[in-house]
Amino acid sequence: MLLDGKAYSQKLKEELKKEVEALTNETGITPGLAIVCTNYAEASKIYVKNKLKAAKYCNIFASLIEVSLDISENDLIALIEKLNKDEKYHGIIVQLPLPPHINEQRIINAIDEKKDVDGFGICNKGKLFCGMPTINSATPQGIIKLLEEYNIEIASKHAVVVGRSNIVGKPMALMLLNKNATVTICHSKTKNLKSITSKADILVVAIGKANFITKDMVKKHAVVIDVGTNKVGNKLCGDVDFKKVAKKCSYITPVPGGVGPLTVVSLLENTVIAYKKILNIE
Beta-carbon neighbour count of residue 181 at 10 Å? Predict the structure, then answer.
């Protein structure tokens, strides 16, 4: 069965739009999101465009703040500190990747914890590690919500996460663990990967290699979440060989139309969460 992230994201956007309208009418203040982008990666333009479009639909005020590729680390931090103090912005994100001369984690950590709507800062990561309420990373949060929308049981299941990035792999593993799954993390140095992935009840793949997960690497009736977005020729494909794996598993996300739209909506939901915390709205 297809896990339709696109359809579910539309449902969430409709709900968020109504909530934002009510909040704005109540407070006279519109939730605001600042997107800082260097255009270092060409693919970032697509993600930024989708975020701006979705924010507009949900009546969230979003600004794209473009900076030069050769901006210094200190100047970028100074910009973020300025945005931290700007009351019209309740959320701040820095579009990754950044140019090689800039330390990404230092930049992310400069964002005020309350406005870190990507959930990438060390404070929000630490709270996630401890199982405390926090702003969760958008992609893993969207995946958890998608599983719950389709009434897929997480507790007691063996979840395997392929990929250990700070953006998806690690927070995904922690969030599954916090939902009482038994979690295994695999990565480029894992031996006998097939023997591990083929035992997964829930398999989350985020490694950035087109069609890397094949049919023989997947357990029958497993739930497969494909986070990958790879360009092969003129087409986008995931990290999972969709056509063949789909015949074997019980649920699977498509690429495109699976995880991507939910990442965008989760970011906007996080912006509204930050907005309510900053304005002390229950």
Answer: 22
Decide if 88 is catalytic.
Answer: no
- Among candidate residues 144, 161, 162, the one with its CA nearest the CA of residue 153: 144
- 56 given a catalytic annotation: no
51 is an active site residue: yes
- The mean pLDDT value for 138-149 works out to 97
Query: How high is the pLDDT of residue 277?
Result: 96
The Cα 95–Cα 210 span in angstroms is 23
- Among residues 95, 116, 157, 170, the one annotated as catalytic is 95
Q: Which CATH superfamily is domain 138-260 in?
A: NAD(P)-binding Rossmann-like Domain (3.40.50.720)
Are the C-beta atoms of residues 274 and 100 closer than 8 Å to each other? no
Six-digit token string for 1:
């069965």
CATH superfamily, with its number, for domain 28-112: Leucine Dehydrogenase, chain A, domain 1 (3.40.50.10860)
The catalytic position among 112, 118, 201, 239 is 118
The answer to whether 149 and 125 are in contact (CB under 8 A) is: no
Two tokens, residue 74: 């200190």
- 117 CB contacts (<8 Å, ≥6 apart)? 33, 90, 91, 92, 93, 135, 138, 267, 270, 271, 273, 274
Catalytic residue among 13, 51, 114, 115: 51
pTM above 0.90, yes or no: yes
Q: What does the pLDDT read at residue 132?
A: 93
> Residue 244: what pLDDT?
96
